[in-house]
Design brief:
The protein has one domain (about 1-260): Rossmann fold (3-Layer(aba) Sandwich). Helix content is about 45%, strand content about 15%. The chain is built from 12 helices and 8 strands. Strands 3-4-2-5-1-6-7-8 form an 8-stranded mixed beta sheet, sandwiched between helices. It is globular.
Length: about 270
């Protein structure tokens, strides 16, 4: 399974990504979780202690490695390899976090993520490798823009989960994400609404999207805010409890597995 999770800042996509990765790992899946959001905080959502999280070097910051693999800085005219070797990155640089293979992609400092630069080439080739050729279940925590995904790589995503919160601005952001994802060739998209307080919140999603395009709802819970402030993993706190969050995430996980197993059809309109 190759699942990308997106959403505007603050909607809770990293909570969803980290919890889903931990649940799948506990179910026996070989899971690779990749933080592709420049505001990287997936480590804490997975349960990585702060000291270890701070010691993890993002791939984009591995300057010597990037120069060695691309040959950048050698010769004249800024010529470098466009197809560098990257298949050893997951095993060489990942950290085990509670049974999940974890990597941080990092952000680019030069020219935006669309630039034809050695760092971007390595990141895009890395994503191509893990999404198209690796056998692990991949959970990709991304920002709303999908900048790291190229057209070919995007088509390898089995399911795009768009996390929203109650509010028209979040709904409009979801629509923009869908258009961008469609342009990239992603065929399968589903929505999760987080921070749901009452029926009016949930109705906002069904009023704007088809019911069969909605993956699930997550109730508002102040404990999630506390855990985020303290850098703790929601999965460790809620595991084996009969709480709304844990039950709702279990239902979402089950739907993800079923959808991908049967081949996801359709997309939101």
């Amino acid at each position: 399974m190759k699942v990308a999770i997106v959403g505007k800042g603050g909607v809770g996509k990293t909570t969803v990504a980290g919890t889903l990765a931990r649940m799948l790992a506990d179910d026996g899946y070989r899971v690779m979780a990749i933080d592709a959001d420049p505001d990287a905080n997936l480590a804490s959502a997975l349960g990585c202690v702060p000291e270890i999280a701070r010691a993890i070097t993002p791939i984009a910051d591995m300057k010597d490695f990037i120069r060695e693999r691309t040959g950048s800085g050698e010769g004249f005219g800024g010529v470098f390899k466009l197809n560098p070797k990257v298949d050893d990155i997951p095993d060489k640089f990942s950290r085990d976090v509670e049974g999940v293979k974890f990597l941080v992609m990092g952000s680019l400092d030069t020219g935006g993520t669309g630039c034809l630069c050695p760092e971007n080439i390595v990141l895009r080739r890395f994503l191509e490798e893990v999404l198209e050729y690796r056998e692990e279940t991949v959970i990709l925590d991304m920002e709303a823009g999908l900048e790291h995904l190229g057209r070919g790589t995007a088509r390898a995503v089995d399911l795009l989960i768009i996390v929203v919160e109650p509010g028209q601005r979040s709904i409009e952001t979801a629509r923009a994400i869908m258009k961008l994802a469609t342009d990239l060739g992603i065929q399968s998209m589903r929505l999760v609404m987080n921070k749901v307080v009452d029926k009016a919140d949930a109705d906002l999603l069904t009023q704007n999207f088809k019911a069969d395009q909605i993956l699930g709802y997550i109730s508002y819970d102040r404990e999630l805010m506390r855990l985020d402030r303290e850098g703790q993993a929601p999965y460790d706190f809620f595991r084996n409890t009969d709480t709304s969050f844990f039950n709702e995430m279990k239902e979402i996980k089950g739907k993800v597995i079923d959808l991908i197993a049967e081949g996801v059809k359709g997309q939101p309109h």
